[in-house]
Specification:
globular; alpha/beta
C-alpha cells in the first residue's frame, strides 16, 4: 500500500516533515497556498523534490482554492484563478506529481440560475490546462466540495472528456453535503476517480478526523473505491501528525 497512500502537507511544512515522510514511506500531497506560491524559492523546491524522488516517493499537489473560481461569472476572478493555476503548473515541473487536485468553485446557492454560465466558463478555463497536464504527465482532478450530488462535476468531466482531467472524491465533503448515497456517487463518477481524500467527520463540519472516528461508513467506502477506482491515489487529509498516525493505523481495519 505504500505507493498508494499519500498524506496532505502544506508546502511550508514539507521540509520539516521530509525525514518523517521518507522514513515512513509516506508520499506527500503538497498543498500550495497563494502565500507559498508568491514566496516560492525555486532552488528550495527543486532540492525537496529531488530528495523525494531519490527516496522513491511519489507526489501529488493540492492547488490553492481560497477566493478562486475557474467558472466565475466575473472575468477578473477567472484571471486571478488562472494565474494561480499557472503558478502550480510551474511547480509541477519540479515535483512531477501524479495528480493535481483543484477545486471547482461551484455551489447551488451562488450559481443556481447561472449554472450553465459557470459550466461554460469552467470548460474554457480547464481546457487550457489539460494540454499542459498532458505535457507534464500529470492529471488534473476536480474535487467535490459543496456538491450535493455529482451532476455538475460529471457535466464538466463529460464536456472536457480527457484522461488528464478527472475527479478527486473527498469522502468527508460528501458526508457533509450529500443528498445521494455512496453507491449512487460512485455509479456516476467512479470511473473518473483518480484520487480520494480520506478523512472522517460527523456530517456537521469539516473535522478532518482519522478514519473510523466519525460517522462515515468506511466499511462501505473502501470496497466501492477499490471496485470503481482500483488505481486511485489514497490521500489522508490529517491536520496534525497524531491524527495522521491514527489514520494510518485505523485504515488497516478496512483493507485486506
Amino acid at each position: 500500500m505504500e505507493n498508494k497512500i499519500h498524506a496532505h502537507v502544506p508546502y511550508g511544512r514539507l521540509a520539516e516533515h521530509l525525514e518523517f515522510a521518507i522514513a515512513n514511506r509516506i508520499n506527500p500531497e503538497v498543498f500550495f497556498s497563494f502565500e507559498a506560491l508568491d514566496n516560492l524559492v525555486w532552488e528550495e523546491l527543486s532540492s525537496l523534490a529531488g530528495a523525494l524522488h531519490a527516496a522513491g516517493l511519489k507526489t501529488t499537489i493540492h492547488a490553492p482554492f481560497l477566493d478562486l473560481n475557474p467558472g466565475a461569472v466575473d472575468p477578473n476572478i477567472r484571471a486571478v484563478s488562472r494565474h494561480r493555476i499557472q503558478q502550480v503548473m510551474k511547480a509541477a515541473e519540479l515535483l512531477r506529481p501524479l495528480v493535481i487536485v483543484v477545486h471547482p468553485g461551484y455551489d447551488d446557492l451562488h450559481y443556481g440560475d447561472n449554472r450553465l454560465v459557470w459550466l461554460k466558463n469552467s470548460i474554457d478555463f480547464w481546457q487550457e490546462f489539460v494540454v499542459q497536464a498532458r505535457e507534464l504527465g500529470t492529471i488534473l482532478a476536480v474535487e467535490n466540495i459543496f456538491e450535493k450530488e455529482p451532476s455538475t462535476i460529471k457535466a464538466l468531466l463529460d464536456a472536457i472528456d480527457d484522461p488528464c482531467f478527472r475527479h478527486c472524491f473527498d469522502v468527508g465533503h460528501w458526508n457533509m453535503f450529500t443528498t445521494v448515497t455512496l453507491e449512487e456517487w460512485f455509479s456516476e463518477l467512479g470511473s473518473y476517480i483518480v484520487e480520494s481524500h480520506i478523512h472522517d467527520n460527523h456530517g456537521k463540519s469539516d473535522e478532518h478526523l482519522p478514519v473510523g472516528e466519525g460517522a462515515i461508513d468506511f466499511g462501505q467506502f473502501f470496497p466501492l473505491l477499490t471496485k470503481y477506482a482500483p488505481a486511485s491515489v489514497w490521500t489522508i487529509e490529517a491536520h496534525n501528525t497524531e491524527h495522521l498516525q491514527r489514520a494510518l493505523k485505523n485504515i488497516q481495519n478496512y483493507i485486506p
